[in-house]
Amino acid sequence: MQSVSKLTNLQGKKVILRLDLNVPLNNGEIIDATRIDKVLPTIEFLLKQNTKIVILSHIGRPKGKVIKDLSLKPIQEDIEKKLNEKIKLIEKNIYEIKKEMLDNFNEKILLIENIRFYPDEEKNDINFAKHLASLGNIYVNDAFSCSHRAHASVSEIPKFLPSFSGLQLDLEISALKKITSNITKPVSCIIGGSKISTKINIIKNLISKFDNIVIVGAMANNLIEHNGYNIGKSLKEENVNSIVNEILSLSKEKNCNIIFPEDVMVANDLNGQPKIKELNHIKIDEMILDIGPKTVESICNIIDNSNTILWNGPAGYFENPNFAYGSTAIAKKIVEKNKENKIYSVVGGGDTVSLINSLNALKEFNFVSTAGGAFLEYLEGKELPGISALN
């Protein structure tokens, strides 16, 4: 995979730039612009090289239909302000646009309206990709978060043009390599979520590489119950005994420590008052909503003794401040080690990113991924169509 950052002869070239500008909107207002901010360096790099930039992106799931509320107009306005550069939003049917027509626009940045307004995008239509490719001289993918999708603008355009990775995609791959292949050990993973079955392939892939895997959140309830404790009315996944057995036997074989809570915070409902409980004291009408202080101490010790850390999934029901204690303590501990330059930290997953955002700590981690599905599939060891296409 070759990075566009290594190219120096781009003057006058038309660059087709695939970005993920799929930001949350509320009545046309951008709620969180993180994804936009992360790709600005690539746009600035291409502007300095005197290129004409043709941006392809999507927002939401219009399923091949034009939906006014899913226009890229608010994104166009946001990028214009941030770069102090006029951007032309092209709403004309893409099949009617020809390469030479793009010279008629004075703007250096052209933004094609929502690429998912065309059913051919998600169908991965080769002719659609060929037409998109005909609009430029080179292709740059800076949308790691879409790279697990076999969509025309992600995995097919590279068949027709010299293709390169963008600056943000380079950073994402570099960070993921540090926790999957170029690892500085000891390496530990803190993994949460509601269903152990959705994370089984990640856990299995990491067991052979990691020293410690700490399982928290509702996923941990299955492990607590598996070890003979009553979990009351806590959230748990049904019929996963074989998955738990598989994780535990593989971890023994690969010499990886699997850690789950030794004490917990419970309440009678999601808005109840938190009580610290040892595992053998959980009542039938109580639910586990966070990890307890002994567990926090154990996890902090693991972080202290790790050189690399991956965190995906909060430790409890952090949306209620009463049950954000465990997640907040983990975040603060990683930040503390980061400030001492004693750890390399990678964080991913929407809830975890929301949590550290709420603590104003985004910049305190080495790498924060907003890539969702692509991040998780990479950790599973899957090949991502958008990345394979660039190789």
Please tell me what the overall shape is: elongated
Characterize the largest beta sheet: strand count, sense, and whether it forms a barrel: 6 strands, parallel
CATH level-4 homologous superfamily of the largest domain: Phosphoglycerate kinase, N-terminal domain
CATH class of the largest domain: Alpha Beta
Quote the CATH topology of the largest domain: Rossmann fold
| Known CATH architecture of the largest domain | 3-Layer(aba) Sandwich
As a percent range, the share of helical residues equals 25-40%
Q: Total number of helical segments?
A: 14
**Share of residues in strands:** 15-25%
Query: Over the alpha carbons, how many angstroms does the gyration radius reach?
Result: 23 Å
Number of strand segments:
17
Going across the biggest sheet, name each strand in turn.
Answer: 5-6-4-1-7-8
End-to-end gap: 5 Å
